[in-house]
Prior knowledge:
By secondary structure, this protein is mainly alpha-helical.
Amino acid sequence: MPSMSQLTKPAFTHMLSALDRILDKLAAHCEAKKVDPAVFMTLRLFPDMFPLTRQVQIACDFAKGAAARLAGRENPSWTDTETTLPELKERIARTIEFIAAIPDAEIDGSEERTITLKIRGQEMSFPGLTYLNFVVLPNFYFHLSTAYGILRNGGVDIGKNDFLGRN
């Protein structure tokens, strides 16, 4: 079985890097169409869903939080003040740097480490592997997919290979 660091760090880094490249395509789209990128920051798929900026912030938070918690570290709190494309790209870069800075040895062996967090105001505890498989990864991919969907729906020329990080 792969180690916990092998299950987390490469996936987070790969997918956040793909999101960063998708945001580059958004910038190119805006330049080509003479559209202010600020228009996209507040787009959402449906009125009761979060906008693009929040989708990116939450995807980064799940990756950062999982790496920290599984390593037995305090999850650093970052303010959610990004409102521009460069600021979102900086948050992604900061998240990737944070994950890379955690030694694999700190994450490895965390399958049974108790992870306790508040979900909708209720304290919940999970073994590390359960937390990763049933809390972190579904939420991480949901918010990445939603960010992708917002941009695709907004007319940005991206496809499945962009999402998967193959471009």
